[in-house]
Amino acid sequence: MMRLPCFRFHAPRTVREAAELLASTPGAMLVAGGTDLLPNMKRRQQVPGTLVGLRRVAELRTITRGATLSGSPANDDELTIGAGVTLTELVRDGRIRQGYGALWQAAAQIATPHLRNMGTLGGNLCLDTRCNYYDQNYEWRKAIDFCMKKDGGTCWVATSSPTCLAVSSTDTAPALLALGARVTIVSADASRQLAVSDLYRNDGIHYLTKQPAEVLTAVHLPPLDGWRSTYWKLRRRGSFDFPVLSVAAAAKIRADGTVEAARIVLGAVASRPIEVPAAAAALAGRRITDELIATAATLAARPAKPMDNTDFTLLWRKRVTRDFVTYALRELRGDDVRELRHRVSRMLL
Amino acid sequence: MKIIGAPRRRVDGRAKVTGQTRFADDLMLPRMVHCKLLRSTIPHARVVRVDVSRALAHPGVHLVLTGRDFPVSYGILPVSQDEHALAIDRVRFVGDPVAAVVARDELTAFEALDLIDVEYEPLRTFSDPEESLACPEPRIHEYGDAGNIHKLVSLRFGDVDQAFADADRVFEDTFFYQGNTHLPIEQHAAVAARDPDGKLVLWSSTQTPHYVHRALAKALAMPAAHIRVIATPNGGGFGGKSDPFNHEVVVAKAALLLDRPVKICLTREEVFHCHRGRHPVLMQFKTGVKRDGTITGMHVMTLLDGGAYGSYGVASTFYTGALQTVTYHIPAYHFQGCRVFTNKPPCGPKRGHGTPQSRFGQEIQLDKIAEGLSIDPAELRLRIVEQPDTLTANYLRVGTIGLAECIRRVTHIADWANTFGKLPLGRGVGLACSSYLSGAGLAIYWNDMPHSGVQLKLDRSGGVTAFCGATEIGQGSDDVLVGCVAEVLGIEPIDIRAVTGDTDLTPVDLGSYSSRVTLMMGNAAIQAAERARDLLAGAVSRKLTVPKDRLVFADRRVFDAGDPAAGVSFAEAVCLAETMHGTIGTTGSYTPPRSAARFKGGGVGPSPTYSYSAAIVEVDVDVSSGWIHVPRVWIAHDIGRSLNPTLVRGQVEGSVYMAVGEALMEEQIFRRLPARLSHALVHKFPSMLEYKSPTTLDMPEVITELVENPDPRGPFGAKEVGQGPLLPVMPAVANAVYDAIGVRIDEVPITPEKILRALDAKAAGKAPRVGPARFPDISWPEPLDVPPPWKSGDGKAEVRSRKSEVGSERSEVVGTDAGARRLQPSGDRS
Ligand SMILES: Cc1cc2nc3c(=O)[nH]c(=O)nc-3n(C[C@H](O)[C@H](O)[C@H](O)COP(=O)(O)OP(=O)(O)OC[C@H]3O[C@@H](n4cnc5c(N)ncnc54)[C@H](O)[C@@H]3O)c2cc1C
Ligand code: SF4
Question: How much is the pTM?
Answer without folding.
Answer: 0.96
